[in-house]
């Protein structure tokens, strides 16, 4: 067990944490949220002490030296930083020991049930599901409480040929349905592990990769050197020099052209579908630019970071995060390879309808052709890394992700579990000098860098990530707010595989473009029916203009989305 604050009073010269300023020895701050909070106290002579939280005296009735007494301090707590003072009236009466756990999430959904903006968000997502979008889960946390928990659609909405599955034959999404987190794996598996290891002093962020993986070196004759001195931080900042996606699993991927050339065997030197060979192939991958001279998001960075976690812990990544992070937090629906851990296909939201073929446009050795459900969609993670990688492969629920988001809002702890300290967290989420939309792994809202995804309204310090399958997470540490919107937007047909095999129908709906959720959620904090309706009218007008302009959003699913929005407006009596 570990706590956000542990204090022994009175402090004595030479004791741990003793401050020569004197006045700070009896005062501390801690994070808390209204209507919850417990102070654990132990003292043989409690009558000799006075304890105050935000100036309010705390009763020490029942405190003894025999065991820890839990004092309820909920009535004195404010949202955010709270002020603790311990005063000793008699220096000869021994010590008083204090412990304060980190906040845990309470349920406050009933109080927000009829919020106009949250109701509008429900109506939009449900209308879009009826119009062809697949499914979603949503959990919103604010000030230490879950204020919104919802689920929409079915775990699989289409047959492999794109025909909608009849409603009677669909399995509805529940709060326990697992979603393929895709690149959110980078944050909620790999980064969580790295932050814990760095906090424990087992990982040096300034160290070279080869300090942990000795075989990681420049290859003889490399046209762009840099691996010998490449650091862990450069991997985390996506400035390591690696290509975005070397497609190790596909022998016909041409690294020079950055596309698949059927029958070319152009990727023969890097091709593998064995986890045992993956690190060797990464080491052999030529760099595309000198490390540190550019920022290019790459899955390879996190494949390497996953291997570093494994080298430090002598455990496979999935085993480490389960044992050291998920189990201590009580997360029962967060796992790699769910079909091997007690879950069925119907427990998982499906992704691509015809395997990894992009509606038949792509083929490679062992490519999947059936609807992907319960297996990670990412081909490198599945075929090369055996389903467990630092860059993809994690499955979870919005409820479990909300706990991990609250962990960050709490500055590294949850209940009596402490995973990393505040200084380590600060290092990971602070803006990168050359691009403030990046931290160490985390994507940051910044002022302009990530607003198309995070929307304009969260604080600029907000962090989070997205996943290709349709997962979106946002953590606003200033406003103590977290959003987990998990969708399966790729569980829809490819719009035109001959034109763009990566353009799925689900990506044309507002829910699949993410920003609608944070916009309405923040509006919900200061909302009215009139403001919600005005925003809906704005959305409809903007959607009409987008379609009228032609181009990539003048499509059948966009028109279906417009009709869905108009149906919501009609039901709400909004003229748009």
Structural features:
576 residues, Jelly Rolls, Beta-lactamase, seven-stranded mixed β-sheet, four-stranded antiparallel β-sheet, globular
Could you characterize what this model shows?
It is built from 13 helices and 24 strands. It has 576 residues and is an alpha+beta fold. It folds into three domains: 5-101, Jelly Rolls, CATH 2.60.120; 109-183 and 332-572, Beta-lactamase; 186-327, DD-peptidase/beta-lactamase superfamily (Beta-lactamase, 3-Layer(aba) Sandwich). The strands form seven sheets. The chain has a seven-stranded mixed β-sheet, with helices on both faces. The protein has a four-stranded antiparallel β-sheet with strand order 1-8-3-6, with no helix packed on it. α1 runs antiparallel to α11 (516-525). The longest helix is centred in the C-terminal third of the chain and has 20 residues, at 529-548. The mean pLDDT is 96.
Briefly say what this structure is:
This protein is of the alpha+beta class. Helices cover 26% and strands 18% of the residues.
Number of helices: 13
Q: What fraction of residues sit in β-strands?
A: 15-25%
Number of strands: 24
Low-confidence stretches: none
From the 3D structure, determine the CATH topology of the largest domain.
Answer: Beta-lactamase
The dominant shape is globular
Cα-atom radius of gyration: 26 Å
Strand order of the largest sheet: 9-11-10-22-21-20-19
What is the CATH architecture term of the largest domain? 3-Layer(aba) Sandwich
Q: In CATH, what is the class of the largest domain?
A: Alpha Beta
Count of all domains = 3
Helix content: 25-40%
Distance N to C terminus: 56 Å
Mean pLDDT across the residues is 96
Task: Please summarize the sheet with the most strands.
Answer: 7 strands, mixed
Q: Give the class from helix and strand content and strand pairing.
A: alpha+beta
